[in-house]
Amino acid sequence: MRALAAALPEQLTSGFRSGQELAPPAAGRPTTVYVVGMGGSAIAADLVGGVVGAETPVEIRAIRSPELPRAVERKSRVVLVSYSGSTWETVRAYDAAGRSGASRFVVTSGGLLAERAARDEVPLLPLPAGLPPRCAVGQVVGSLLGLLDPWFPESNEARVARVAGRLARLMPEYASPRGPAAALARRIGSRMPVIYAEAAFAGVARRWMTQLEENSKRLAMFDEAPELFHNAIVGWDALPRREAARFAVLLLRWEGGPASTRRSFEYFARLLDRHGVSALPVALAPEDRLEATLAGVALGDYLSLALADRRGVDPLPFDAIGRMKAALAAR
Predict the structure, then answer these.
(1) Among 26, 93, 112, 287, which residue has the fewest nearby CB atoms (within 10 Å)?
(2) Domain match, 16 and 100 both
(3) Could you report the per-residue pLDDT of 98-121, keeping only the tens digit for each?
(4) Is residue 108 domain-shared with residue 151, that is, in the same domain?
(5) Is 181 found in the same domain as 153?
(6) In what order do the strands lie in the sheet with 192-198?
(7) H-type helices in 58-154, by residue range?
(8) Residue 91 burial (CB < 10 Å; 0-12/13-18/19+)?
(9) Do 118 and 181 share a domain, yes or no?
(10) Around Cβ 166, how many Cβ atoms within 10 Å?
(11) What is the CATH number of the domain that holds 301?
(12) Would you say residue 30 has pLDDT above 90?
């Protein structure tokens, strides 16, 4: 799993090249790209969405369901992502997108989706085989960025190469038992992690949650700002001090975000401190949204592995998911 985490930079550049090769020309109007997937196959839509939404007229909408919105029609663009290629929800959505006449793109390592894409002459972006689906996130992020590259004011080719190079230099630090991931793991300890980030980086917070759940085999929660300041803050303000030791709140903060959000996070951190809650600020890379997103993903991945080490659990298996699929298939 450490080796797979370290492959993120290489996956990013490989996926970007694949996406670029199949990228359709950008239209002259705003558009929505629907990205359908489940679990680790869907998270890339959230991660890329924060960058694309801020820098292009494209909105990425993640669909975690076999049912497509009624808005999907002949001019729509739908990207179907399934690592195995046999996720039934995504296969069903593929068929529904075909019936609507939408332009489809498939991202998979094989399975039914690959077979149907070949049959229907639908563009396919291949994923490397033999990985846990959550470990192909860099490839899918790169693929989506490549597909959408024509929509950016200028190509991201040099940017992706630069970010990948910086990530490669960060990996040894993140993997170190004295690095920031291990330090965060020590501070979290046995507490329940609650991860917060501003809306543009909510995908990073979600990725941290899912990696902690799958790799560390423990529950976690995430939410986004400023929304949390209109609801979750009430719960924290009412939290009895005797319960505070149960939680560790990780505040993922990007200095390039709105000043109002930064001030709100500062106020929120003081509120948590008054209630005795362990609030752990995590600074995301300050300059580039894409770098901040992917460096945040890498740090969260290594944090999940450090927490798995502390609990003495193997991060690789995800037996509960397999048991559920088998039980449903038997009905």
Answers:
(1) 287
(2) yes
(3) 999 999 999 999 999 999 999 999
(4) yes
(5) no
(6) 221-225, 192-198, 247-253, 278-283
(7) 88-100, 111-120, 137-147
(8) buried
(9) no
(10) 16
(11) 3.40.50.10490
(12) no
